[in-house]
Amino acid sequence: MLRISNLHKTYLKAVEPTLRGLSLEFPRPTIAGLLGPNGAGKTTTISILCGLVRPDSGTVEVLGADIRTDLERIKKRIGVVPQSIALYPPLSVRENLEYIGALYKIPGTILQQRIRHFLQLFGLDHTGSKAIRYFSGGMKRRANIIASLLHEPELLVLDEPTAGVDVQSRNLILQFLEDYHGQGHSIIYTSHLLEEAQQLCREVAIMDHGQLVVQGDPRLLMKDHGFSSLEQVFLHLTGISLRD
Ligand SMILES: Nc1ncnc2c1ncn2[C@@H]1O[C@H](COP(=O)(O)OP(=O)(O)OP(=O)(O)O)[C@@H](O)[C@H]1O
Ligand SMILES: [Mg+2]
Fold first, then answer.
1. Does Transport show up as a keyword for this record (predicted)?
2. Which residue has the higher pLDDT, 200 or 243?
3. Fold of 2-85+153-238
4. Which of 43, 52, 157, 188 to mutate to test the pocket of ligand 1 (most atoms within 8 A of CB)?
């Protein structure tokens, strides 16, 4: 599903490198969590694997394809939900989705069916015509997720999809991710909610300072380190000092 090897990235004019030889591997289709403190390099890693940021060196294989040679094909097979809402605020959710669907060249009837289906699934069917700028945080997050699903990606990559949403929206999003995985799709997601990641993920990779700290099945990591929660493992391995 994802293989990252010795990835390095220093942003232009940055004082320090963001990724310092990151290597990690999620071999099988799964629900994987990419975890780490603020500034660990999670968003940078996601931006690299979807082609938004170019690495300085290292290799990344997504669904068995190399991002250096197969990026356009990879883009068609993955859906990315960015950390910040990537929708046009003055447009309605339906208009946003129609626009995105057209970019993917999804035929009109199929696109309308999918929009109807997902608006209903994410509880937005009654607000399809309302401008995104009037949406609540949870509604924006749900709409942001739909935008990544219209082309039916095999792999869904979500950067903090449950940040700042209420319990109801979070439940809906997590249930959707379980179901999507149950239908044979792969998921990589980031979150600072370790309890949530512990429940959802079959595999996690904890990174810090642009490197892998540890990866594996959360239950095995807890057992190996002698803790009863993933959060305890995380704190044990990454320390309690602030990252700012
Ligand atoms: N475009 C950029 N230019 C310069 N530095 C950047 C840029 N984007 C990120 N960085 C820096 O790279 C480091 C890692 O950032 P990144 O956003 O990848 O971390 P993150 O793990 O996603 O953090 P968070 O949990 O806060 O979202 C940070 O120190 C950040 O300031
Ligand atoms: Mg981030």
1. yes
2. 200
3. Rossmann fold (3.40.50)
4. 43
